[in-house]
Amino acid sequence: MEAKQVQQKFSESFPHSPAYQSLLRAGTRLGLLQQAHAHIVVTGSHRSVALLTKLLTLSCAAGSIGYTRRLLASVRNPDSFLFNSLIKTATTLGFSLDTVLFYQRMLRFGISPSSYTFTSVIKACADLSTPRLGRHVHSHALVFGYGLDSFVQAALVTFYAKSGDLGVSLKVFDKMPQRTVVAWNSMISGYEQNGCSREAIGMFHRMREEGVEPDSTTFVSVLSACSQLGAMDLGCLVHDHAISHGFHLNVVLGTSLINMYARCGNVSKAREVFDSMEERNVISWTAMISAYGVHGYGVQAMELFRQMKAQGPRPNNVTFVAVLSACAHSGLVQEGRMAYTSMKQDYGIVLGVEHQVCMVDMLGRAGLLNEASQFIKEHNKGEPEPEPAPAVWTAMLGACKMHKNFDLGVEVAEHLLAVEPENPGHYVMLSNIYALAGKMERVETIRNMMIKKRLKKEVGYSTIELDQKTHLFSMGDKSHPFSNEIYKFLDELMRKCRETGYVPAQELVMHELEEEEMEYALRYHSEKLAIAFGLMKTSNGEAIRIVKNLRMCEDCHSAIKFMSIVTKREIIVRDRLRFHHFKDGHCSCLDYW
After folding, report:
1. Beta carbons within 10 angstroms of residue 247's beta carbon
2. Contact status, residue 574 vs residue 546, Cβ threshold 8 Å
């Protein structure tokens, strides 16, 4: 409304003014704006605040923020129209710091801010990630009487959500007399972006219960939350709702659906969405390549990559991370080498840490430990920080453990402990390597070091979604309402697996520390409990989908193969690294993980 008033003020005051007409003709072309500015000065119109407001907003829109600052400094009698127009334009164009500076200048002139002022300035504080400044502006809004303004409240919800202060964000949200879809979206995305996916989905259900219609932005946030949780049933409902309500499958929504289906274990459905998109950008192509990669479909990933180079957008550095990762997961060493060379020579992409990790992982998984070690040395010569990133050493350490190269593994682990002495995962991995080598006295030393440093390894858990409700299980967990039935079912299932040929990996009980607590040995690992519950509560022939927060251990990997035989079910497990599709006693990873 205020912007319209400003425009009306311009047109009524200077309908045929040569100065005003020259501003209109100049638009956002800086050279012409400077000529118009000169004309205003020469004709004596520089005292007109309305003309200067138009000039300021156009120069800001032209992207010349330095010129805009100098111009504002020359204005002797700015008014609220000028500041509000300039603040709104600066915020819209992403000049967030200048928005704050213009606001401070406004206060120094003794001009009272309006709700439009606070809405823009609070948004700028959110973009700048400055919680302290944002709270200061919030207090200003209260002092000036705009604490209950719906636009200011919506901006505050977004600000506190982006700042990670979800408690305050929810308090402001709950006090809003009328909540717009923008406010709902801010809460949902705030939860999702802060890793609170269950709360994001809960807020989405509350939104629907209160009769508020979601928009495309809502769907993108909810689909991302579904991706994190592996909640495909809800993701499918969101997809169906978007289609039935006529939402256009644009690049953003389409890519969100690709990610959701891929991370929920249905890569074929992800490809259906990809093929149905009328417009695809580099993010869409990369998402689909990555989807194939994490599912172990390296051949399909490389085929799609070839199509992208032939008919799609130019690949970027993230695309090559997805490609190299796909090669690593599928053992496509030669293809990975070629992609790496092409990345540098054909596309001029600078090698990043992620690319190094993928290359070391690919070479290491293939057993080419010497080549992986040489790669690390060669690609850190002459660097400002010659020590490789911890993630590179972690990939190398995993390869040493996989191929039981204990001497090199200990050397790599010592590098890791030197750069990240407080990371418990490194101690756990080194302990496992010593244990596999039979050096139990060193295992004890490592464990004592962890106790002394008060380091605790990450607790493993698995989730399964049934009837749009997510169930969480941890090692030996008995908090679930159906715990007794689950444990009885699992005991009987494991008995049948043993009869079919399953042999527990007893040696893992002593030193697979990074995956689960030892207290309940192997049988009651979280993924086994989740699978047992899923088998109990679903129909014959229905696929079971599990999400695990850690890497799956070798015993569970073996056991689930036999579960798929005994139950004649497909069991899909997403662990920290990739997907495993178990069917008829085989896994899609071909034991290459």
Report:
1. 15
2. yes
